[in-house]
Amino acid sequence: MSEYLLNYPTAVLEKANSYWTAKEIDQQPRVWREAAQNIVEQRSAIEDFLVPIVADAGLKIILLGAGSSSFIGEAIAPHLRQSLKRRVEAIKTTDILAAPELYLEAQTPTLAISFARSGDSPESLAAVALVNQIVEQHSHLVLTCNPDGSLAKVCAERGQDHMHCLLMPEGTNDRSFAMTSSYSSMIVSCLCVFGACSSWVEQAAQMTERLLAQELDHIQTLAQRPFNRLVILGAGSLLGCAQESALKMLELSAGQVVPMHDSPLGFRHGPKSVVDKNTLIVHFHSANAYTELYDRDLFAELNRDDKALSIIGLSADHFQLDSKSSAMIDDIWLGLVYVVFCQVLGFYKAINLGIGADNPCPSGEVNRVVQGVSLYPYGSQAE
Q: How far apart are CA 24 and CA 380, in angstroms?
């Protein structure tokens, strides 16, 4: 009997050049549990490195990455600011490279947390070097999925006492073009580094397993609808999750579906003009009772407008295991479930469009690991 992934026989997925995307989406609940266990097993070494750093009340924490890796920072920065009571900023490595003086403060103690699937993109290494060059008191925590990547190797060099590397579970160095299990496993690992998380991971994993067991037919039908615009809305940590989810659709549809993301309150200020009869709206509802007041207002307004092709509201109740669990989950964990929903939606849209999800741009204009980046020493000038 043939193995199935996301409702498709693996043989069909392999022929359609979509096997790895399906596998890496499907494996996420398992690798989240493995990621959390890895942190438990390494807790002593992690605390030896981090506790003295985070004890500094003047510490600035910067979350670094490019593409999906940068959206990890966007999602978790609000949560870490609240829990650590420290300055936490999500900064794209691409922004730091272009104008480092706008983001790095020489006199401010800085912990740079780098997220990198392969660890081989040129911006990852260059951003670490710039932090070292500009910030007097600096340290680095690297989360990567590739033990053989350049970033992991830099951490392993002798004398790098200011660097610590955490490797994600085996199999998360996604072989597909779009980051899926790499993105979510780095979120889980970072959250677990800075707090107890076993119960949260288990709850998010079980909710996602329910999604993968019970929602695939619904999502597959949704992907078959004739939309070429996608709007994803979320507040707080869910805004970063919406940003990543929008990128997944853009990548997997090879640009045939044009997405955007916004907060529910921000969407009214002009961006709502994008909605037409070819637009699908996916609204990430917050588990926070106060934030949900604004979610409900906009959701009702969008339905009254009756402009979109379809409006989908996702909530904790939608994936709840029981009434108690849905009331307890925090948005940063709920966002993982929402992101998987959108990964599946993007996967099915690729299949519907006849696009190989594992490599939606075979002509090479965009690549799994970014190419064609020229790096310049800081202080250079154009001639």
A: 41
> In which residue are the tokens 């310049």 written?
376
β-pair partners for 98: none
Looking at the DSSP bridge assignments, the partners of residue 140 are 112, 163
3-state secondary structure of 113: strand
C-alpha to C-alpha distance for 179 and 25, rounded to whole angstroms: 9
**CA 274 to CA 318: how far, in whole Å?**
27
252: closest CA among 339, 360, 130, 124? 360
Q: What is the DSSP letter of 193?
A: H
In the beta sheet, which residues pair with residue 144? 116, 167
Strand runs (DSSP E) across 13-104, as ranges? Answer: 60-65, 87-92
- State the CB neighbour count (10 A cutoff) for residue 324: 8
Q: What is the DSSP string of 272-324?
A: GGG--TTEEEEEE--SSHHHHHHHHHHHHHHHHHT-SSEEEEE-HHHH-SSHH
Question: Can you read off the two tokens belonging to residue 327?
Answer: 């009331």
For residues 43 and 39, give the distance between their C-alpha atoms in angstroms, rounded to a whole number. 6
Q: State the residue for tokens 């994803």.
A: 232
Does this model's pTM top 0.90? My answer is yes
Between CA 232 and CA 283 the distance in angstroms is 6
Calculated CA dihedral for residues 95, 99, 105, 111, nearest 10 degrees: 30
Contact 25, 180 (CB under 8 A): yes
| Residue 119 Ramachandran class (φ > 0 left, ψ -120 to 50 alpha, else beta) | left
| Largest pairwise CA distance in the chain | 65
Output the tens digit of pLDDT for each of the chain's 383 residues: 459 999 999 999 999 999 999 999 999 999 999 999 999 999 999 999 999 999 999 999 999 999 999 999 999 999 999 999 999 999 999 999 999 999 999 999 999 999 999 988 888 899 999 999 999 999 999 999 999 999 999 988 866 789 999 999 999 999 999 999 999 999 999 999 999 899 999 999 999 999 999 999 999 999 999 999 999 999 999 999 999 999 999 999 999 999 999 999 999 999 999 999 999 999 999 999 999 999 999 999 999 999 999 999 999 988 876 655 444 789 999 999 999 999 999 999 999 999 999 998 766 555 545 556 677 778 655 45
